[in-house]
Write a structure and sequence with these properties.
Oligomer: heterodimer
Shape of chain A: globular
Largest interface: A-B, 36 and 37 residues
Number of strands of chain A: 7
Number of strands of chain B: 1
CATH class of chain A: Mainly Beta
Strand content of chain B: under 5%
Distance between the termini of chain A: 38 Å
Largest sheet of chain B: none
Helix content of chain A: 10-25%
Order of helices and strands of chain A: EEEHEEEHE
Chain lengths: 93, 487
């Protein structure tokens, strides 16, 4: 079974939709939806307060993915970073 | 308010609201929390609350509530827990927008730059070694196990306490057999309390002090993210650094802390590694003392123990069934530790440790006294002499191993006495240290293994550790011999 949870309706589909894992360090994006086959993973992501509409900035990719959401920072592994799908990914600032 | 749903979702949103209101009016019992909260939990399928309402409300009401929940669930394609989290987030955003003003500075603050240095592998790895070198090697090994132990052992016990105790008991107890219980080579005061106070106390105290500082700065989550990829290879996640690093202090306490790991598989692997390849501070202090004269010997010991840690973890993760764990962790801001907290925390841990071990040391002294008196120890020592000889050690190290089962550090401390007497060569010392590091955990850790993991797993881990430690000792002594290495 595969879950795909929509939040904000995606306005423009070619507007840089990327999983968090594919971002470059320093890039920002808005969470569009969470995509994972694993319910436990989904729950962990939600527990970090990562929900559609939240802005995420990627701070580091290796050895783990580190990102800023609101005033908090989190570290996750590749599998979780693949499950967080972002839209409106900007250019490196 | 920003609407996060499209028009279709908005109509659907009302469905959730209507269901909530209907459940709220149905509820008659008193739950100490608002009906709204109860209804929300029921819709999210909370087991505890569902059984509580089923017991409190009439059967018809329970059935009706279950029907509403089922219909609401069927109405959405997403899980209700997710939708409710979204709604909650919307509300939080609205409140925050109205009440909080936040202007981030343009420059990265110092603590943020320091944090980046810690989490970047290029700068973070040398920093980790610096922390290990100064925190563990210099402070715990050098100051705790060196300066403090020397002072307490030699100046306090050997010069003042032991002669006094021996004189006093010589006057008090005319029978040498009973005098030995308190004041002989293995007496309660001259050995048990001496080891506990003069050897273990300073080492453990300095370790817990360093650990508290590291813990309170917020370094551990940063170490966790740095090490996650490596720990994934051994079936753990970065989260496991906390019990493993704590295991460098006290394996018993660390085994208890494996509870914080999310899956059973991770808990079993962490328990196994703590029992086998993570030396506790008391042991490490004594081992650092034993091998201090020879950096090469220390290197061989460290390489062998770390290799075994990784290999055993790797094979354990292959064998033990279960899902691959996932890693997620909040990275709190770095903070300057509060001295008061550090001391309170260290005091509480040392106290816990001491209350735990002092009776164990005294019991060990009594058992050793009884074992020697009855000839039982002679027998067990004879049995242990075979594997000990097998790994190329002199027979009298068997005593250290036997005592090592009562407490690993106790055994290591026994080796200390052997080395002082000049009975061990360089190679023998390394092999003995490796075997003793891997050897069965102390009685307290064994009991904790059984308590946390159950009889079957706890016992299986112990038997594995027993055989593995001697096999590894044999292997190392053979390899050193074949290579013609003399340390």
């Amino acid at each position: 079974m595969r879950f795909r949870f929509r939040g904000n309706p995606v306005k423009n589909t070619c507007d840089n939709i990327l999983p968090l894992a594919k971002l470059k360090v320093g890039q920002k994006g808005v969470v569009a939806y969470l995509q994972t086959a694993n319910r436990q993973r989904l729950q962990k992501i939600m527990a970090m307060g990562i929900l559609p509409g939240k802005t995420i900035t990627l701070l580091q990719k290796f050895p783990s993915y580190v990102f800023q959401v609101g005033l908090s920072q989190f570290a996750v592994d590749r599998e979780l970073a693949e499950a967080i799908i972002l839209q409106d990914v900007d250019r490196i600032n | 308010m920003r609407n996060m749903h499209g028009t279709k979702d908005k109509a659907a949103g009302d469905f959730l609201e209507i269901s909530l209101e209907r459940i709220e009016t149905l509820l008659k019992g008193d739950y100490n929390i608002s009906r709204r909260a109860v209804a929300l939990l029921l819709l999210q399928g909370d087991d505890e609350l569902t059984s509580l309402t089923t017991a409190t409300e009439s059967p018809e009401t329970s059935v009706e509530i279950a029907e509403i929940a089922a219909r609401t669930k069927a109405h959405y394609q997403e899980p209700l827990a997710y939708l409710i989290a979204l709604r909650r987030q919307e509300e939080v955003n609205r409140i925050v927008k109205e009440t909080v003003e936040y202007r981030p500075g343009t420059k990265l603050p110092l603590r943020e730059r320091l944090s980046r240095i810690m989490t970047n592998p290029v700068t973070g790895t040398p920093l980790l070694f610096l922390i290990l070198y100064f925190g563990l090697y210099k402070f715990v090994g050098g100051f705790g196990a060196g300066t403090l132990v020397d002072f307490l052992e030699i100046d306090l016990f050997e010069k003042i306490v032991n002669p006094f105790v021996e004189r006093t008991f010589a006057l008090l107890i005319p029978w040498p057999v009973f005098r030995d219980l308190f004041a002989g080579d293995y007496g309660i005061i001259t050995l048990g309390i001496r080891y506990a106070v003069a050897l273990i106390l300073p080492i453990v105290t300095t370790f817990f002090l360093v650990f508290a500082v590291i813990e309170d700065t917020g370094y551990l989550p940063r170490l966790a993210l740095l090490i996650d990829r490596i720990f994934k290879k051994i079936g753990l996640t970065g989260r496991a650094v906390i019990p493993i690093v704590l295991g460098l202090g006290c394996g018993t306490m660390a085994t208890m802390v494996t509870r914080t790991l999310p899956t059973k598989r991770e808990r079993v692997i962490a328990t196994l590694l703590l029992a086998l390849a993570v030396p506790c501070s008391a042991q490490m202090g004594v081992i650092l003392g034993l091998l201090a004269g020879s950096p090469k010997a220390l290197l061989v010991w460290a390489v062998v123990v770390i290799t075994i840690f990784i290999l055993v973890g790797y094979f354990a993760s292959m064998i033990i069934p279960g899902d691959e764990p996932s890693f997620y962790m909040e990275i709190p801001p770095l903070r300057l530790p509060n001295l008061n907290n550090i001391f309170t925390k260290t005091y509480a841990r040392v106290k816990w440790y001491f209350v735990e071990i002092l009776p164990m040391f005294i019991l060990a002294s009594v058992l050793i006294w009884f074992g020697q008196l009855s000839g039982l120890f002679r027998l067990l020592t004879k049995v242990l002499e075979h594997p000990v000889r097998w790994i190329g050690l002199p027979d009298n190290t068997a005593v250290a191993f036997l005592f090592g089962f009562f407490r690993r550090d106790y055994g290591a401390a026994g080796l200390y006495d052997l080395k002082k007497a000049g009975l061990l060569s360089g190679n023998q010392l390394v092999v003995a240290c490796i075997t003793l590091t891997l050897f069965l955990p102390c009685v307290a850790q064994f009991l904790m293994n059984v308590k946390e993991r159950g009889w079957k797993t706890g016992l299986a881990i112990s038997i594995f550790v027993l055989f593995f430690s001697f096999s590894a000792g044999y292997f190392v002594s053979q390899v050193l011999g074949l290579l013609g290495v003399y340390l």
